[in-house]
Amino acid sequence: MNNFCNGCRKEEDQNIIRGSYFIEDSGAKIPKTVIDIKLSSKNFIVQRTNNVYDIYEKICPLGKGAYGSVYKVSRKNSGTRLIIRALKEISKESMNVNPENEEEIRNEIEILKNIDHPNIMKIFEFFEDDKNIYLINEFCGGGDIAHIHDKYGLFPEFFLKYIMFQVFLAIAFLHSNKVVHGDIKRENIAFVYEGKINEKEEYDELFNRIFNDKEIQYELSYSLGTDNLSENAKNLLKEISNFEMKILDFGSAKMKKKVKEKLSGVTGTIFYCSPEVVKDRYDFECDEWACGVMMYILLTGYPPFLGDNEEEVFQNILDKEINLNVPELKTVSDSCKDLINKLLNKDYKNRIKAEEALKHEFFKTGINVSNLLKGKFKENTEILKKFFINEN
Description:
- The protein is α+β, with helices and mostly antiparallel strands.
- The two termini are 41 Å apart.
- It contains 15 helices and ten strands.
């Protein structure tokens, strides 16, 4: 379930201390860290004295899933600042019908509480009553990639480059912390705009310029730097640099306990499944494969491996070679196609890793994305600092 709404500006809550559970209500009985949280069928999440809707007010629905809904909410009594969040409301009745959902919620809470990265959605707090469990997550106001793709069409290469660099940063960070996301896809990557945009019409205007201005697309795709760009291209590039990508939905994520451990249980969405996931014995590299599939879809409009049914899709994933000679990729750069080819290597041992992908020529040709984003993240982790350096 996604937590986005077009035309809404995210407001950061400075009262949240990352990595710990910070409370404002003296009567709340809340553990301070995730280590203190005991998740079980009897005592699933933290107990509070407050009703969630005493603290948050619904603004509009954002999405609906198999066992709950997501709403855009505002925090009450927050003074002059408008604090916007995404409230994920999970039905206990639906979890009783499918006990596996409890494991998904456990994963989502534990993993999100233990990671802090600018390209990964944050969880702030959670509540429980007799009927539901409520997760209060970071609100992503720009829409997810699937929504933008379906509305505006194929992604210009320069915009895809900016998006994927941040996605690989997040995945490299997750993998360095022994976390496999397991469900990377268009629907699980969302935009947060850090500029002044706060109305749907403004988002529409910006995305129309990105997707429909062919002259700017050409400049930003083939220019060797920013010095010779037109003013229109420079202005658009500056606005684009305000987009921060967020990976969502950690319900399928898994934390590896041993280095040589292989994971099992088909994970992800059918068209994004890697060969090793199909074989039910996979590792971190399933996330890189899914990135390759997503890039292919955003550039062509369809998955690289199709079929009339699930069995045929899986068979094609195992047996067919990737076709990069389709008409939609005719004007796509060789470096972009090379990266996709390396991501969709059927041999996971030789598949390019997220950390390696960040150093790929694709991100160095045209507008150097690492230079564009350098300094954007103020308090970087080591995995981020590693890539925000001048490269020859």
